[in-house]
Amino acid sequence: MSQLVASQPDAPPPPLHVAVIMDGNGRWALARGLPRTAGHRKGAEAVRACVRGAVRLGVTHLTLFGFSSENWRRPADEVSALMGLLRLYLRNELAELDDEGVRLRVIGERDRLSGDIVRLIEDAEARTADNRRLELTVALNYGGRAELARAARRLATAAAEGTLDPARIDEDTLAGALYAPDLPDPDVLIRTSGEQRLSNFLLWQLAYAEMVFLDIAWPDFTEEHLAAALADYRSRHRRFGAVPV
């Protein structure tokens, strides 16, 4: 396939999907004697830089871990501040995202999100649905294990109703029951703040992703860091379990 694409210079480039765990907002703030919420506000600026950089660097899909299902355990004032930042982002950034050809969608359970946030999400998704330059997916109230359990329930229900033969369930069937079955698997995962774990993020989809761990906190993330991570990714040889030929 790669030879075929190479022989057709006018063929579109293959998808490039970058997933990001945006870690370190609170520690960034505490290191400066600031409240954790200040780190989240600064982190929102890094989101803007990351999205703009992704557009310029030819990324086709960008998935950000915005708020995990476990983050509800944080102090109530911090959760409230995060939800407030989400409202501001959806209101203030939507026009630019649309102008730049960015499609926005959200994965995760929406039942714990407030009604006004759900409406903002739905409006943003509808307004940007036809954009194709970059697909920006934000994981909100998301957990990888919960996503897999949800997919299993959907398949079990179909099997119980007689519309699905359990013997025919394979990897493609399960993938088709995830939140965004049309989303290509990430090629590279970037995590900031020096931590080296998945934290229940895209457990199925990250099976073969290359991983780049950065020592900087998320508020310090810039387009240059994204470019360096992509250069690191492109220097690697992905074998998907096979051997080089």
Automatic annotation (TrEMBL):
Single GO MF annotation: magnesium ion binding
Pfam assignment, any one: Prenyltransf
Q: Active site: which residues?
A: D23, N71
CC cofactor: Mg(2+)
Provide the residue positions that the database annotates as binding Mg(2+): D23, E210
Biological process (GO), any one: polyprenol biosynthetic process
- One GO term describing the cellular component: cytosol
Sorted alphabetically, the keyword list is: Magnesium, Metal-binding, Transferase
EC number(s) stated in the UniProt entry for this protein: 2.5.1.-
Positions binding substrate in this chain are 24-28, 36, 40, 68-70, 72, 74, 191, 197-199
How, per the record, is the cofactor bound? Binds 2 magnesium ions per subunit.
Summarizing the function annotation, the protein's role is: Catalyzes the condensation of isopentenyl diphosphate (IPP) with allylic pyrophosphates generating different type of terpenoids.
Q: What's this protein's family per the entry?
A: Belongs to the UPP synthase family.
Give the NCBIfam families listed for this entry: PRK14834.1, uppS
Tell me the subunit arrangement: Homodimer.
**Know the name of this protein?**
Isoprenyl transferase
Species per Swiss-Prot/TrEMBL record: Roseospira goensis
